[in-house]
Amino acid sequence: MTTSNTGTGDIDPAVRAELARLRQSIDNIDAAVVHMLAERFKCTQQVGHLKAAHRLPPADPEREARQIARLRALAESAHLDPAFAEKFLNFIVAEVIRHHERIAEATNGTTPTPTDTTT
Ligand SMILES: C=C(O[C@@H]1C=C(C(=O)O)C=C[C@H]1O)C(=O)O
Prior knowledge:
The chain is mainly α and 119 residues long. The protein has a single domain (13-118), classed as Up-down Bundle (Chorismate Mutase Domain, subunit A), CATH 1.20.59.10. The protein contains 3 helices and no strands. The radius of gyration is 21 Å and the shape is elongated. The N and C termini lie far apart (65 Å). The structure holds the ligand C=C(O[C@@H]1C=C(C(=O)O)C=C[C@H]1O)C(=O)O. Residues 44, 47, 59-60, 63-64, 67, 92-93, 96-97, 100 line the site of the ligand C=C(O[C@@H]1C=C(C(=O)O)C=C[C@H]1O)C(=O)O. The ligand C=C(O[C@@H]1C=C(C(=O)O)C=C[C@H]1O)C(=O)O is lined by residues 44, 47, 59-60, 63-64, 67, 92-93, 96-97, 100.
């Protein structure tokens, strides 16, 4: 390829301007999402250390079920696909649980299973 392709080559200047305006907002929203996720992971890292110190299991499926129900309801009222909201939360929570497992290994040399808390 000899030329760069921005995907906006032949379009009407008014359309180009509208696309640029919308993309500026999309970029701002993406930045906000990254900052919010960074803050969320700061909190979940602290939860991971608290759990490891008290030998609590990395995952809490009951808490997750409550979060999913709450997020699905919020998504519906915001006209966002609830299935997408659930998938997005599950994606983040899976990563958090991986972090918690690593913290437990580093702190205790082991990851407790849910049954460990009942004994
Ligand atoms: C952060 C926690 O650990 C896990 C991660 C969760 C999350 O990212 O929201 C929720 C429940 C747990 O499976 C927690 O127990 O609160």
